[in-house]
Model the fold of this input.
Amino acid sequence: MKRLLISLLLLLAAQTARGASEMREYALPAGTGPHDVAPAADGAIWFTAQRQGALGRLDPATGKVDLLALGEESAPHGVILGPDGAAWVTDGGLNAILRVDGTTRAVKRFPLPDPGDPVDLNTAVFDRSGTLWFTGQSGVYGRLDLRSGALRIWKAPRGAGPYGITATAAGIFYASLAGNYLGRIDPATGAAQVIAPPTPRAGPRRAWADSRGAIWVSEWNDGTLARYDPAERGWKTWRLPGAQPQAYAVYVDDRDKIWVSDWGANAILRFDPADERFTAFPLPHPDAGVRQLNGRKGEVWGAESALDRLVVVGTE
Done:
């Protein structure tokens, strides 16, 4: 009854926004298990098919889905679009970073230094120099130098937990779910600084930088959206609406609007920093499990991991 009431309230809150924004779902093959998404330059959407050990590609114009097998024991987690136009994948099953050519679909593997020591690879980001940084939830973060091919791993403060990661001019920032902190990596030395959130046991899960360099963090345990300003070294938090919010994914669009997937309400929320208000977009089917958000101008994409679907919300 409580969940139904929350959903009804969110639906009412979203009615005005629905007139200006559209939501659409795309069905994927059964058993795909999509985890992360990344819009490609040609209009397609890359996604990791975690349960099938594959990288998927959706053509939104036709609904056609192609799956590229990544290898035996593959379990891809994250995918991002690189400055070279390729899809870059963090594969926890293979314990390697993968580059998938957008045209030829050729796969190049960059194994971690100790292939026998799986680190539960999670997400990756390119810094402004074109270096790839990534996290491993077992308690590490790392760097791949694309010029030399050198790959290095560091032990994270507080052990297990590194998850979402983002890059700014002030450094590389990652969210530690189990460690309960935001980490700042110095690109020059690789050393990580612990930045504790104001919320006890917040459970930072994902992180995304806005155009001003502020870091937006989804706090899973507390159901809050947080912002850390590196220039002011200060935090601000907003609790998501509803009785039992669970903030999983966070994404900042081209207009600096913040998008959050709320598992508690089974909805995607938009937050406007200007008026500090949330707008809810309830998902069409229950228990969708949107684990990641990404986007491009006019669109926010999510992976409905529990339903084998991708979802897109118009932002105009």
Q: What stands out?
A: The chain has one helix and 28 strands.
